[in-house]
Specification:
11% strand; Dehydroquinate synthase-like, alpha domain; 15 helices; binds zinc ion; six-stranded parallel sheet; Rossmann fold; binds 5,6-dihydroxy-NADP; 2 domains; two-stranded antiparallel sheet
C-alpha cells in the first residue's frame, strides 16, 4: 500500500433481526428531546414507526416529529428541519428510514448550532464544523440498504431551485453514534429501489477500486465485497424475501462505504458526480442514475486503466485468463458487468430514467469535476459520456 491514512469509525452497529432491542440501552446515553426524522410513510405502513415511538416513549423521551423527508432531500427541507430542531431545542436526532433520512439527519445535526450560512459553509465550501461547535448526536434505524450512510459522514442535499445536487462528507463527529440494521426491514422496499440500492453499493466499491496501480489490501477486500453482492443480488431479485440474501446485501452496503476500503487508496467518484447531476435533473433513484452512465464511463476508464479492469474480470467475475491478452480480459470483465446489470434489470441508459438530448448541456453544467481514477476529465468529456449514455 502506498497511501497514508487515519481510520476512525465511531459508529456502533447493531445487526440482525433482534437489533431493535438495543435501542432502549442507547436511549440511556442520550438527552430527553429527540427529533424523529422519517420519510413519506413507508415506516407507518410497515409498522416500524409505531414500534419505535413506543420504545422512545417508554424510555421517557419527548418526541418532536419531522415527517416527509423526501428521497434526495432538498435544501428547503434541510432548512425546515434546522428550524424545527432549534425551536424545540432538541438534544439528539433519530433517523428512521433510508439513506435520504439518514443523510438529512446528519445535515440537520451539523447545522443546528452553526450561526451562519450552513449551506455555503458545509456543502458549497466543503468545510467541517469548527472544533468547539456543538453537534447533535444522530442515531439511525435503517430501512433500506445502499448508501452506507448508516456508518459514514456523507450527507447529500439537492438545491432544487438550481437543480444542483451535492454532497459533503463530514468528519467522524457526524457519523451516526449508533445504527440499527435489521435486514427484515428492507423487505418492503419496492423492487426498483432495491435494485437501485444494489447498484449504488456496487458502484461505491468500483469508485474506490478503479484507481491506483499499487498492490493494496483494500482492493482485495473490495473484490470480496463485490463477489458477495453479485451473488446475493441474483438471489434477491428472484426472491426479495430471502433473508440471507437481503442480510448480505445490507452488510455489504455498510462496508462498501464506511471508509474502510478507501484506506490508502486514490479514488475516482466521477460516476457519482455525473449521477448526482443526472439525478438533480431527472429525480430518478440515486442508484439508477449511476447505472445509467456507468457503461460509457467505464468503457473510457478501461482504456486508461486496462490492467485493473483485467484484474476485475478475473478476480470478481472469474473469467479465465488463459488465451486472452490483458485488453481482451478487461473487455470481458466489462461485458460481465453489463450482463449482470441486464440480468438484475438495471437501466443502462439515461433515456430510460427520463433524460433526453436537450438536457445534456444542463446536466454537464451542474456536474462537479474531480481528478478521476485513471482519467483527467473536462466538461467536453462529461458531455461525450452523457451522449454515449443516451
Ligand atoms: O420516504 P419513504 O416512504 O420512507 O420511502 C422510501 C423512498 O421513497 C422508500 N423506502 C425506504 N425504506 C423502505 C422504503 N419503502 C418501503 N419499505 C422500506 N423499508 O425507498 C425510497 C428511497 O429511499 P431513500 O432513502 O431515498 O434511498 P437511498 O437509501 O438510496 O438514499 C438516497 C440518498 O442518499 C444519497 C443519495 O444521493 C440520495 O440523496 N447518498 C448518500 C451517500 C452517503 N451518505 O454516503 C452516498 C451515496 O452515494 C448517495 O449519494
Ligand atoms: Zn451512491
Amino acid at each position: 500500500m502506498q497511501g497514508n491514512f487515519v481510520y476512525h469509525n465511531p459508529t456502533k452497529l447493531y445487526f440482525g433481526e433482534e437489533s431493535l432491542e438495543y435501542l432502549n440501552a442507547e436511549l440511556e446515553n442520550l438527552g430527553k428531546t429527540v427529533l424523529l426524522n422519517y420519510g413519506n410513510g413507508s415506516v407507518k405502513r410497515n409498522g416500524l414507526y409505531d414500534e419505535v415511538v413506543a420504545i422512545l416513549k417508554a424510555g421517557g423521551k419527548t418526541i418532536v416529529e419531522n415527517a416527509g423527508v423526501m428521497s434526495n432531500p432538498t435544501l428547503e427541507k434541510l432548512n425546515e428541519g434546522v428550524h424545527i430542531a432549534r425551536e424545540n431545542k432538541v438534544d439528539w436526532i433519530l433517523a428512521l428510514g433510508g439513506g435520504s433520512v439518514c443523510d438529512y439527519s446528519k445535515g440537520v445535526a451539523a447545522s443546528v448550532n452553526y450561526n451562519g450560512d450552513y449551506w455555503r459553509r458545509f456543502w458549497l465550501d466543503g468545510h467541517n464544523p469548527e472544533y468547539g461547535q456543538e453537534i447533535l448526536p444522530v442515531g439511525c434505524i435503517l430501512t433500506m440498504a445502499g448508501t452506507g450512510s448508516e456508518m459514514n459522514g456523507g450527507c447529500v442535499i439537492t438545491d432544487a431551485e438550481k437543480n444542483f445536487k451535492t454532497g459533503h462528507v463530514f468528519d467522524s463527529r457526524l457519523m451516526p453514534r449508533f445504527a440499527i440494521l435489521n435486514p427484515r426491514y428492507t423487505m418492503t422496499v419496492p423492487m426498483e429501489q432495491m435494485k437501485a440500492g444494489i447498484y449504488d453499493i456496487m458502484n461505491h466499491i468500483m469508485e474506490q477500486y478503479f484507481s491506483g496501480t499499487d498492490d493494496n489490501t483494500s482492493d482485495y477486500l473490495s473484490e470480496g465485497l463485490m463477489r458477495s453482492l453479485i451473488s446475493a443480488s441474483r438471489v434477491a431479485v428472484k426472491n426479495p424475501l430471502d433473508y440471507e440474501a437481503r442480510s448480505d446485501i445490507m452488510w455489504t452496503a455498510t462496508w462498501a462505504l464506511n471508509t474502510l476500503i478507501g484506506c490508502g487508496k486514490s479514488q475516482d467518484w466521477m460516476v457519482h458526480m455525473i449521477g448526482h447531476s443526472v439525478g438533480a435533473w431527472t429525480h430518478a433513484p440515486h442508484g439508477y442514475t449511476l447505472a445509467a452512465v456507468s457503461l460509457a464511463y467505464y468503457q473510457r476508464a478501461m482504456e486508461a486503466g486496462t490492467a485493473k479492469f483485467a484484474r476485475f474480470a478475473h478476480n470478481v467475475w472469474e473469467i479465465p485468463t488463459e488465451g486472452k491478452t490483458e485488453k481482451e480480459l478487461a473487455v470481458a470483465g466489462l461485458e460481465a458487468l453489463r450482463d449482470w446489470m441486464t440480468e438484475i434489470g438495471l437501466p443502462l441508459t439515461i433515456s430510460e430514467i427520463g433524460a433526453d438530448e436537450k438536457m445534456v448541456d444542463d446536466i454537464v453544467s451542474t456536474t462537479v469535476i474531480y481528478p478521476a481514477g485513471y482519467m483527467d476529465l473536462k466538461a467536453e468529456d462529461i458531455r461525450a459520456i452523457l451522449k454515449e449514455s443516451l
